[in-house]
Design a protein that fits this description.
Blueprint: H1 5-20, H2 27-38, E1 43-48, E2 51-55, E3 61-65, E4 71-79, H3 86-100, H4 104-117, E5 125-130, E6 133-139, E7 144-151
Antiparallel strand pairs: 1-2, 2-3, 3-4, 4-7, 5-6, 6-7
């Protein structure tokens, strides 16, 4: 019994160390709470597969992608119409400004620029880069979507 005593004391010390540490929220959950607090009308939905699903009246679909090996974060939005409304563009610009800590006028300019390039001359799938953000705008017959990411190397 005495030979087991040091092992029991060490095990108890390790267990008390882990039990005393405070629980930390995920950085992605913190971003979702910031979006909900700073943008009117956003509600936070389910979290699945490194995605937090959000909802807003101006968007058909809205989600926040959590960091992975290749990207830091992602903001994805799908407009309910083929031509995105100014409210939708403002929503995406606001979300990108909060997530990537860039001034909102810069993100709004990038979003408008990306949607402005979609069309007959350049096609319905545009990839552009603005202020170290990768933006991809896609337009279909019924809706338009945008995905904004930043590489993990930046």
């Amino acid at each position: 019994m005495l030979s087991r005593l040091p092992y029991l004391i060490a095990t108890a010390a390790i267990a008390s160390t882990f039990a005393a540490s405070p629980a930390r929220a995920d950085r992605c959950d913190d971003l979702a709470k910031q979006l909900k607090a700073q943008i009117d009308g956003i509600s936070v939905g389910k979290t699945a597969a490194n995605m937090i699903y959000l909802s807003h009246p101006a968007a058909k679909a809205l989600r926040l992608g959590c960091p992975s090996r290749t990207v830091k974060n992602e903001v994805y939005g799908q407009a309910p119409a083929r031509k995105p409304s100014p409210e939708f563009q403002d929503l995406i610009a606001s979300a990108a400004a909060i997530v990537f800590t860039i001034p909102k006028p810069d993100t709004l300019r990038g979003v408008k620029r990306c949607f402005g390039r979609v069309g007959i001359l350049r096609g319905n799938d545009i990839k552009t880069r603005f202020r170290r953000l990768n933006m991809r705008c896609i337009r279909t017959k019924t809706d338009a979507s945008i995905s904004i990411t930043r590489d993990s190397s930046e």
